[in-house]
Every structure is written in C-alpha cells, then in structure tokens.
Backbone:
C-alpha cells in the first residue's frame, strides 16, 4: 500500500510539475509575443558600437565611449567605422548638442588631417552633420581654411572634395562665416568649370549661399573667372545646373542694383576677365536672349527676370 501511495504522489508531482512548466512556457511565450518583459542585453563595448549591425541611436554614455575610442586607437579600420557611427548619430539634433558638450567636435576635426583619404572623408561627413547645429558651427569654423585647402588640393571629383564642399555649403547657409571664403572664390569657380555634373551642382549650391549676401557681392563679382563660365548658360546644359547658374546671376543682380541703380561702392575695381564683366557683357546677353526660347517654364521665368539687366 505504501509503495502504491508513493507512486501516486510521484505521479501527481509529475503532473503538477508539467502543469507549472506549461504555465511558465505560456507566460514567457505571451510576453515575447506582446513585447513585454525585460530584455537582458549586455552593455556594448566601444568596438561593438561601431559594428554595422548595431543600428540603435546612441546615448550620451555610448557616444562618450565612441569618442574615447577615436582618441585611443590607431587602427584605421576602427577609426573609420567609429566616424561613420558618430556621423550617423550626428544626424539627430539632440546628439549634435551632446557630442559638442562631450568635447567631440575637436576630436572629429583632428581627423581631417589624417593622411588616409577614407578617414578624412568620413570625418568631413561627420562634421557636415554636426554643422547643422548653429552652436556647433562656432567650433567647426576653425577648420574652414583647412577644408578649403583640401577641396582644392584633392583630386577633382573625389569623395574628399565632395565631402568638403558639402560641409562648406552647410557652413555658409547663414552669413556668419561666409567672409572666411573670400580669398577662395576664384578657386571655387575653377572647380565649378572643371568638375563633373555632381561637383558643379555642389559648387553652385555653395556659390548661391554666398550670392544671397550683399556683403559677398564684390568678392564674387571681382573673381577672375574663365570665359567658359558662360557655357553654363546654354540650353543643352542639365536643368539642375542651368537653373542654379541663372539663380546665381539673379541673386548677384539683386545685390548690384536696387531700383535700377548700382549700389556697389565702385565697379571700376572689376578687371576684365572678372565675373562682373562676363555677366554684363554682350556674349552673356546673347545667351540670355537665346534661352528665352528654352522649352522649360522654370528656365524661361528666370531669363525673363534677368534679361532687363541688359
């Protein structure tokens, strides 16, 4: 009898145990299904944060780890990955401020001096995202001269040149730092005329920023520009380039004239071969008259506004 009772208790225990296990299974399965319950995840290391599979937005502590990694490692692969991760996170406005407060901008800025072109490009891209924040621009401005030099010394149409141009375009959205580009304006026009389509568009975006500021008009008009600049005002030119070139003329004309009168201090300082003489010369006037028959409505509208200048 005792043995049978014992067997009965064992059987009952097995049933209860199985029932409890099933309940736990149902509970945990339900938690997973509805997304409840704690997710135990180890704190990622700095190297883990640079893994392309880690796609979460970093918090201040993780950003600090990443910046420390940039300062402490000499591994070019890790540096490049860290800059990409940092640049991606700098696309978020909150992180733009956090990275500045952590002293991260000079750490990234120092990387643009790296002889490795891929690292230089990634650093410029990160600074570009950081530069969307106006307070960050006050720190980034110290790199403007170096970025300009890199844009003009790097191979034409290269990734570094494009990254530098994008950063400079962001830095000139407001008038605060535009004056720092005064001595480079002729060089920008050279890149404009020799670069490919993408480079032309990016340089024109930069020049359009400058042309909206009357204080930059004399520097733009006085730039020595090759006569091939007028080839941009041609019906065969891609619309995105032609429209920007026309808008550049329109903006500058708004700066040079007001109520039909010249407002520049003096036009006698503009030498032959300057942008001023190109834009207000007979060859340009002929090109504008030809563009009046352009099939695109947007182009026609620009030409109608510009033509009275002649």
Residues:
């Amino acid at each position: 009898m005792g043995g049978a009772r014992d067997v009965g208790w064992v059987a009952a225990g097995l049933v209860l145990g199985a029932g409890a296990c099933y309940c736990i299974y149902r509970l945990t399965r339900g938690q997973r299904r509805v997304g409840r319950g704690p997710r135990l995840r180890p704190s990622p290391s700095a190297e883990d944060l640079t893994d392309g599979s880690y796609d979460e937005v970093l918090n201040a502590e993780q950003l600090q780890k990443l910046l420390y990694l940039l300062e402490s490692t000499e591994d070019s692969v890790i540096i490049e990955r860290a800059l990409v991760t940092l640049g991606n996170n700098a696309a978020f406005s909150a992180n733009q401020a956090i990275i500045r407060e952590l002293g991260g901008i000079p750490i990234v800025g120092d990387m643009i001096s790296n002889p490795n072109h891929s690292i230089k490009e990634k650093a410029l891209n990160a600074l570009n995202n950081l530069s969307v924040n106006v307070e960050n621009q006050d720190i980034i401005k110290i790199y403007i001269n170096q970025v300009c030099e890199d844009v003009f010394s790097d191979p034409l149409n290269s990734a570094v040149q494009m990254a530098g141009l994008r950063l400079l375009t962001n830095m000139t959205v407001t008038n605060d730092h535009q004056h720092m580009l005064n001595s480079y304006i002729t060089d920008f026009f050279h890149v404009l005329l020799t670069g490919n389509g993408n480079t032309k568009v990016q340089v024109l975006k930069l020049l359009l920023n400058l042309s909206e500021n009357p204080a930059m008009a004399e520097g733009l008009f006085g730039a020595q520009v090759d006569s091939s600049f007028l080839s941009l005002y041609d019906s065969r030119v891609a619309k995105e380039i032609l429209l920007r070139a026309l808008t550049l003329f329109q903006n500058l004309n708004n700066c040079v004239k007001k109520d039909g009168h010249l407002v520049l201090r003096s036009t006698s300082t503009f030498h032959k071969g300057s942008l001023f003489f190109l834009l207000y010369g007979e060859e340009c006037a002929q090109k504008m008259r030809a563009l009046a028959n352009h099939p695109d409505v947007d182009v026609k509208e620009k030409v109608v506004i510009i033509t009275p200048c002649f």
Notes: The chain has two domains: 57-171, 185-309. Residues 2-34 form the longest helix (33 residues).
